[in-house]
Amino acid sequence: MGLPGTQMWTWTLCVFLSWMCVGRAVAGPQYMVAIPAVLQAGAETKFCASLLQPNETLVMTITLKSSERNTTLLTKTSSTEFHSCTQFVVPLAQNEDVQNFEVEVRGNTFYSKEVRKVLIRVYNPRTFVQTDKPIYLPGQQCISESSHWIPSSDLPMACMISSKLRTLTTTESDSG
């Protein structure tokens, strides 16, 4: 067992040394960037960036990287703490694409770079039309209370409305 005073000094020394290690680890600049993991192609979205406890002038650069191009979303130089949210338009894509979201913080004595993957998902809107009966044959008409029907070449049948009679006419499209 040992002397009680020696045991106390041992614990004090351990606590002091661990405080020095933790203090050094936390003493440097800290940053955080939040962005959704799944982004919708062509849509406007935002990310938020925070910088805490900078001990020198730092440059934070945030880039969205793909095999075709790199898009710099933010370059901010600061020697003070900040929190900012930035809106940007997600690049268009034909298919789902995984891109790298890179955060780089650089100073004279500090450097950090983090890369995370984000999924860019293509949004394919669909139209659902509910009618009073399940099937309309080409040329059949029905009375409509709305004149907001829009023709579509993407559907196997196109809907047209006569604004004078307010009747709905369905016709077969070329693709069907």
Structure at a glance:
The protein is 14% helix and 44% strand. By secondary structure, it is mainly beta.
Tell me about this structure.
The chain contains one helix and eleven strands; from the N terminus they run H-E-E-E-E-E-E-E-E-E-E-E. The strands form three sheets. A five-stranded mixed sheet has the order 2-8-7-4-5, with no helix packed on it. It has a three-stranded antiparallel sheet with strand order 1-3-6, with no helix packed on it. It has one helix spanning 4-27, and strands spanning 30-34, 38-40, 44-52, 58-65, 70-78, 82-89, 97-106, 111-121, 141-143, 157-162, 167-172. With 176 residues, it is mainly beta.
Please describe the topology of this protein.
Blueprint: H1 4-27, E1 30-34, E2 38-40, E3 44-52, E4 58-65, E5 70-78, E6 82-89, E7 97-106, E8 111-121, E9 141-143, E10 157-162, E11 167-172
Parallel strand pairs: 2-8
Antiparallel strand pairs: 1-3, 3-6, 4-5, 4-7, 7-8, 9-11, 10-11
Instruction: Please state how the strands of the largest beta sheet are arranged side by side.
Output: 2-8-7-4-5
- Helix share bin: 10-25%
Question: Uncertain spans, ≥5 residues at pLDDT below 50?
Answer: 5-24, 154-169
Strands, total number: 11
Based on the model shown, name its key terms:
176 residues, mainly beta, 5-stranded mixed sheet, 3-stranded antiparallel sheet, 1 helix, 11 strands, 14% helix, 44% strand, elongated
